[in-house]
Specification:
single chain; alpha/beta; Rossmann fold; OB fold (Dihydrolipoamide Acetyltransferase, E2P); 2 domains; 5-stranded antiparallel beta sheet; elongated
Length: 241
């Protein structure tokens, strides 16, 4: 069993490494100090289990776990935390396990023995934990890449994929437009049946010679068509103080 250790505190990582070395048939695949680093390490090294701290700067453990659970071959996630009730309720039905620091070898060994791939119930619990993603984890030419949500101009559906237009270009994701609207509804608004745009970037509406409306976004030359029934919604956003 290959285990990836993720904790922002070096002494905690050292302690977990020492405990894992005492458990038969367990190998430390690597270490990371935050959620983003964990995703990169998992992509590069692979692992069967990720020991994941919850409270970390930047991408925390819950968001990292959601990204991991969305991969084609997700690892099992075992949370480690200094807070005995933090996030427990979100996983009480189908949790792999959570370990309260300082972690004991017997407790760690028992958790590893139960570890398996996250199932649908666990992924649903993660999705319902209440924390929105602040980054999108996408696969580009066999590599994982993180895109900050604040850099996204729009999401546009095209058959089974959704195009993410961001400040660095375009990528394709498999999330449905409806799921993105549900998750990011306060930050993105639907302007067409096939498009969501970033509310903070809306500058205005333009009407072409055929009477069709298009939305203008700050920092983007491209214009996106707005459905007639959704024009009032976009106007309200523009007029809002």
């Amino acid at each position: 069993m290959r285990v990836l250790i993720v904790d922002d505190e070096a002494p905690a990582r050292l302690r977990l490494r020492g405990l894992l070395q005492q458990i038969p048939d367990v190998t430390v695949a690597g270490e990371a100090s935050d959620g983003a680093g964990a995703l990169k390490q998992f992509d590069a090294l692979g692992a069967d289990v990720v020991l994941l701290d919850i409270r970390m700067p930047g991408m925390d453990g819950l968001e990292c776990a959601r990204h991991l659970a969305g991969l084609a071959t997700p690892p099992a996630v075992i949370f480690t935390t200094a807070y005995d009730r933090f996030a427990i309720e979100a996983f009480e039905a189908e949790a792999v396990d959570y370990l309260v620091k300082p972690v004991r070898r017997e407790r760690l060994q028992a958790a590893l023995a139960r570890a398996s791939r996250p199932n649908a119930a666990q992924r649903a619990a993660l999705d319902g934990s209440g924390a929105r993603r602040r980054q999108l984890c996408v696969r580009v030419r066999d590599n994982l890449r993180l895109i900050d949500l604040e850099n996204v101009f729009y999401f546009r559906a095209d058959q089974k994929y959704v195009t993410v237009r961001h400040s660095g270009g375009e990528v394709l994701i498999e999330d449905s437009l409806k799921s993105l609207e549900d998750e990011f509804g306060g930050e993105f608004v639907r302007v067409h049946r096939n498009a969501l745009v970033a509310i903070r970037l809306i500058e205005g509406l333009e009407k072409d010679e055929h009477g069709h409306f298009h939305v203008r976004l700050r920092g983007l030359d491209e214009r996106l068509e707005v459905s007639r029934r959704l024009v009032p919604d976009v106007r309200r956003i523009i007029r809002a103080p």
